[in-house]
User: Fold this.
Amino acid sequence: MRALTGTATLTRLALRRDRVGLSAWILGLSALMAGLTAMTVSALPTEADVIHETEFMAGNPAMRMFGLASGASVGGYAMIRNYLTLAVLAALMSVFAMVRHTRQSEATGRAELVGAAVVGRYSTLAAAVVVTIGANFVLAALLAMAMLVNGQPASGSLTAGAAVGAVGIVFAGVAAVTAQMSSSSRGANGLAAAVLGVAFLLSGAGNMLGSVDGGGLRVVSAWPAWLSPIGWGQQMRPFGGDHWWLLGLFAAFFFVLLGTAGLLATRRDIGRGLLAERRGPATAAPGLLGPLGLARRLQRGPFLGWAVGMLAFGVAWGAISDATQDMQGAALDWYTRMGGTDQVVDAYFTSIMAMAGMGIAVFTVQMLLRMRAEESDGPLEAVLAAAVSRPRWAMSYVLNTWLGAVALLLLFAVGMGLAAGQVLGDTPAQLRALTGAALVQLPGSMVIGGAVIAATGLLPRWAAPVSWTVLLGSVLLGPLFGPSLDLPQWAQNLSPFTPIPKAPAADVTATPVAALVAVSVILAVVGTVSLRRRDLTLPA
Assistant:
């Protein structure tokens, strides 16, 4: 029997298992790219607008952290603003897919069952790699098509799609390695996410330390950017040179990672990772003796990662708040429309807080979908065997998630308020205004969380795709994209982010906040009652 025997069969199995999840990721990212590009096209109607906005992004070191200017073009500006988001999401798609088909299969015992058949040593890993690479090829093609239908040049559109897809493929290799290192899918995902975070920081630091050419429209990155796959994607310069030769660098690094994963796979037992698992204490702390403490312990790791990220982003956005006072053109129009006021600093604060609120909704979905994972993977059975009811167990996740969301919003507000206070003055006033504005964002993410609970109770098998689809639809219909895409008001009102008061630019009114909280509670009750009445889908 050869090492890759059975790879084709396992690939078909992986495609069957992931036909909904990966399709949702690919179509969602493609729709996001189409929407973002359409928004950029409508926001920059003249060449002067394009040049002005590109100069602003190139000349501000803080803004360079989020995008690399490669010349004046509408497509190029769209990539400056959106490449980082797309690349990070493509990387996460690949990491989750790889870990799901490798480490998670071992944790659930599925790999042991498959291994009893006629399959080679590397067949499971190879099938996961084939599926993930194929998903990234499809994603790259659809991203390019999303730019083409918005009137962008073919060469730049193809380069943009390839840059994002290449990042996704490299992180499939990263996840192939971390799946050999950790004994749990959560640990493998966490290690890969840590690598992604380092890659993000290196590319951002390289761009911030870079220099602007004489024309003021192109940034030459410093050396740290060349240590990051995310930075390599930016160096491909879509619409600004189209450096396809960098795909060779992606390919070389991916094959090194894949070879490393294959080597490590031969040095460990099935179900075990190379990193030794730490033994816990002999007795549990008092806080872990109930479902609330257990849920808090299980959510602690991801929460800490989010806390660091939200604080860092808050400081970064606050530090550049003084630059908004010189903003002109389409960027000024967008912020004033988004913020609902012609006071540009207040409009900027309102816009950034709205984005933070949408980010917290992502955290909410991630944390609450853990309930579905606990059910499908089996740990829930042991919890319910004790004196714990299903509603009590579910509410422990809900309470921890919403408390975590409040803490993250406060961290973001404090970071942004302190940084904005340093550059604008009157730090106490900035802290008060931004703290209130941050807390106003909570009801929007509560509604998304209610939808996740309802989906978990009513449609357990479809909970994840339904939850992420609801979130993506709410973002696209909401104030960030809805007005720019000229969507009718009734469609924009379907998003829970639309009625949120525009604080600190406007006063906070109680009616929309109370309505959103009521909707979230109704959805949570529907989901909890359904969860109580239906049969659990525990592993065999």
Observations:
- The longest strand covers residues 211-212.
